[in-house]
Model the fold of this input.
Amino acid sequence: MKQCEYCGKNISYHDQYCSDECQIAANQYYGKTEKFAKPFMIVNTVCVFGIPIGIFLMSIQRMVGASVAAACCVILGIMLLIFPFATDGMIRKFKIGMATRVTRIVGICTIVLGIAVAGLAYFLH
Ligand SMILES: [Zn+2]
Done:
């Protein structure tokens, strides 16, 4: 039994998607991925490196470091919300629909974490 590549519903062997909506949504996802993969990667890499740099700076200048780490978390989270690009492994496992939802949830958690870091640094000041 094959599964819809977007939502994971069981489909017949010669189909790729269960419905037109799933096919359109999948095409939109792949189109967006192709167009924005590079800027997404660049911003992500900067933010992923920015978080430990911010944490390191906190030992010297607590508020500056916390601001850098928090800003990186929030930017990273917003990027994941707008561009919920999952890894190929995640798509194979969860299908596109579920994988983008999981990525968005990770994005929200990252934003919350960023705000928590900024809040903690501020109150412990
Ligand atoms: Zn489907």
